[in-house]
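Mods, move this if it's the wrong board.
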Amino acid sequence: MSLRTVTALLTVTACMIVVSCSGKGRSADQDFYFTTLKTGGEERVSFDIDLSDTTCIYGISLVSRFKKDAECSNVTFTVSLTSPSGQSGSERVTLSSDYRTVKEYIRNNPEDGRIQAASAPGYYDISWLYRSNIRPQEHGEWTMTVSAVPEAGTGIIGIGIIINKIPLAGQ
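Not the wrong board. Structure tokens:
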């Protein structure tokens, strides 16, 4: 992936985040969910996601917005998924969240599109590819809950996800 493509993707992601301070955005092959967290509120959000298209595989990215003055080198999330039939599972993931470190990684690895970053006055956004090539065992409406682990969540002011739909070959 070229540097120009990465820059374009970052710009689109930043615009989507800025425009959608809270709520759901959508394009033909992508669903975007984002919630601005309340000051002093819980750093946990839930999203109902549509994984019903049997002609696609899915990719899920985690998105977080940080205060620029926060010192947060890594962030740990607990990610829980509940299937349409009620089965659930969760895991913890720790991701680099220092803006300078992430920007340097992107600059040195322009072909790696798994992580993106954008900034605006007062805050910055990072998007990490969480899972790719997902073929759900159950198609339908899933619930995804993303929680920032309190000690690692310092400076988080918003949490979101991006669901990408990729058509299966020959569909």
